[in-house]
Amino acid sequence: MPNHLARETSPYLLQHAGNPVDWYAWGPDALAKARTDDMPILLSIGYAACHWCHVMAHESFEDPATARLMNERFVNVKVDREERPDLDAIYMQAVQAMTGQGGWPMTVFLTPSGEPFYGGTYFPPDDRHGLPSFRRVLLSVSDAWRSKRDDVSRAVASLLEIYAPKPATGDGAPISAGTLEAAYRDIARRFEPLAGGFGRAPKFPQAMTLDFVLRRWARTGDQRALHIVSHSFRSMMRGGIYDQVGGGFHRYTVDAHWVVPHFEKMLYDNALLARLGVHLWQATGDDDVRQAAEETLGWVIREMTDAGGGWYSSLDADSEGEEGKFYVWTLDELRRELGDDSAWAIQHFGATAGGNFEGKNILTRARAEPAAGTVLPAVDRARVVRVLYEGRAKRVWPGRDEKILASWNGLMLRAMSEAALVFHSVPFREAALANGAFLWREMVRDGRASRTHTRGETRISGFLEDHAALALGFLSLYALTFDRMWFDRARALADTCTSCFWSDTFGAFYDTAADHEALITRPRDVTDNATPAGTSLTVELLLIIAELTGDAEARRRADHVLGTLGGPMQQYGTMFGHLLGAADLAVNGAVEVAIAGDPATSDFAALLRVVASCYLPSLVIAGGMGDAVRGLVLMDGREPVDATATAYVCRHYACELPATDPIALAAQLANASQVRA
Questions:
Q1: Is the peptide bond between 202 and the residue preceding it cis, with omega within 30 degrees of 0?
Q2: What is the model's pLDDT at position 171?
Q3: Distance of alpha carbon 388 from its chain centroid, rounded?
Q4: Smaller CB count within 10 Å for the chain: N or C?
Q5: pLDDT on residue 183
């Protein structure tokens, strides 16, 4: 018989609906049962694409004896961390405090009031590698709850201390160029010169940090900064972390050289990396970088798009019960699929008889040139990849998490819109417009966003990151189309960020709205982890709104938040990649471009194409005329010259001479972003 999860829409929760465990979703029913029966809560948090979540489910949650023990002694609650980042953040703090590390699956034991007292991540079915078996943990925790309640109370009291409100680390005073310089030095110190990226295995892309470093190059001309970004991105796109056949990036690699990935593909990683690729192509003109960005967005359109225009969350790491099985190849498989082209492909993708992953090959492009003495025919790479893709498509596909998350869609909408503009891509433009229309239609009501939409059902009040990411996505659609509707929608969501998530008491944004469900604490995570923090997205959003409208209060609030985080940004640069980008905008100001005229005309399009070809960190753009630009101070007094579309390049609203000629505009933009000492 299905358990209580059968009524849910989350694919992750539905994966567990047939377990013999009497799972509940988080909510009043589970909490009431725990209080009534005086039983502890076993909270298990994971997500659909998580490999070790599947392992623990198979080993323990599908085991009748383990399930019986869980049902007899606990109220069991399953949470999809992607639906409820608030619960994930709160209880991850506790697990990290108890164990010094975190991850998923996350297993936390709570009082009926939701207070944590013990926890960990993955527990095996038998004692091994220094980890206690899950059944032993269940018995130990249950015995403590029944006979050592004082010990439990002391553990609760100790853990609750981590949730006490923390004073701001700074006084809100404006940050300076020195803040950015110190952060960059910290980041550059962590750069790994051999394979790029930062640190050792396991290795994550850290696209937000790289984007900030690219800004640094544009501002200062520091060639090492450009090398850090270019070498890191190229190493990734040539490695196994990049799907050489289907496009798109896997989540991270278990090695330091980008070869062996953890095979799940997440929408947010690909949004951040595709956008970085767009920026890096603007900066360098590197066609390989452009190809990776375009292939990544093509993967999203081809494999991750809902019929209504929304984008799905992830592809699983596993298929047929094996991690990575969908993606790897033997030499015989390559020969069978490619025939005469197989010798080229084997050399090009570095495949060998022994393989590089459990006897098979993760395709890479680590060797760009044939080995000495090898003569290979010229081969159409696109055709080879297409044949491999068609052959791979006949395999059993990884599971797909088809929930549509507001914040992740906002991140991808921004990447898709910018790529549409920069690469002059009609498919990207159409995908971006369809997504924006879907998000506004299905996931926003009265200026409030919802978190998730699955199978036609929209659920869960949106978090700070949802509102800010959607607003930034809509601003990118405005920059693509100059349709005033998208700016107005972004402004409405920005107003919600302030009215529902800002605290005058603490001078900070919370991740949950003031009217959100009461939890043991109101979460506020300011670090940019796998995705940008709600705070950093909102700070950037308010700064852009201030540039466009002259909203002094929005700028003041953003500057204050940056001031409170100046110290941590300098010391731990890689933890604040997106916020550092916002800080760059605050310190160095935007490159303001106003194009006066009719966006439908060819002369307007010619000027916009020049802007799109340039890498301009902190570009803020407005365009149009008449009612379409009313209230946008960036457009005040900006009129077409001689009835011809005219561009104005400005810093702090002080502008260069009006430009109607694309060549003149290009000259003005050439050094617009640089701030040299």
A1: yes
A2: 63
A3: 28
A4: C
A5: 97
Is residue 230 over pLDDT 90?
yes
Q: Which of 306, 487, 303 is nearest to 398 (CA)?
A: 303
Name the 3-class secondary structure at 656: coil
Residue 420 sits at the vertex; the CA angle it makes with 416 and 426, to the nearest 5 degrees, is 115
The answer for residues whose C-beta is within 8 angstroms of residue 464's C-beta and 6 or more apart is: 497, 501, 509, 510, 511, 512, 513, 534, 535, 537, 538
Tens digit of each residue's pLDDT (9 = 90 or more) over 277-319: 999 999 999 999 999 999 999 999 999 999 999 999 999 999 9
Please, are residues 118 and 74 in contact by the beta-carbon 8 Å criterion? no
The DSSP letter of residue 659 is B
Token digits for 410?
A: 């906002």
For the chain, the 3-state helix, strand and coil shares in percent, each to the nearest 5, are 50, 15, 35
Quote the CA–CA distance of 623 and 604 in Å, as a whole number: 9
User: What are residue 36's phi and psi, to 5 degrees?
Assistant: -65, -40
Tell me the pLDDT of the chain averaged across its residues.
95
**CA–CA distance, 187 with 244 (Å, rounded to integer):** 29
Q: Across residues 405-428, what is the average pLDDT?
A: 98
How many helices (H) and strands (E) are present in the chain, helices listed first? 25, 22
Average pLDDT over residues 514-540: 96
Torsions phi, psi for 457 (to 5 deg): -115, 125
Q: Determine the length of the chain.
A: 677
196 touches 234 (CB < 8 A):
yes
Tally of CB atoms within 10 A around 562:
27
Q: What is the pTM of this model?
A: 0.95
Q: Provide the pLDDT confidence category of residue 173 given band limits of 50, 70 and 90.
A: confident
Encode 609-646 in three state secondary structure.
Answer: HHHHHCCCCCEEEEEECHHHHCCCHHHCCCCCECCECE
Taking alpha carbons only, the member of 509, 488, 487, 490 closest to residue 499 is 509
Separation of alpha carbons 474 and 305, rounded Å: 18
DSSP-assigned beta bridge partners for residue 457? 454
Per-residue b or e along 210-234, where b marks 16 or more CB atoms closer than 10 Å to that residue's CB: bbbbbbbbbbbeeeebbebbbbbbb
Question: Can you give the pLDDT at residue 168?
Answer: 58
- Amino acid found at 288: D
Residue type, 90: I
- Of 497, 502, 473, the C-alpha closest to 486 is 473
In 3D, which of 433, 464, 461 has the Cα closest to residue 446? 461
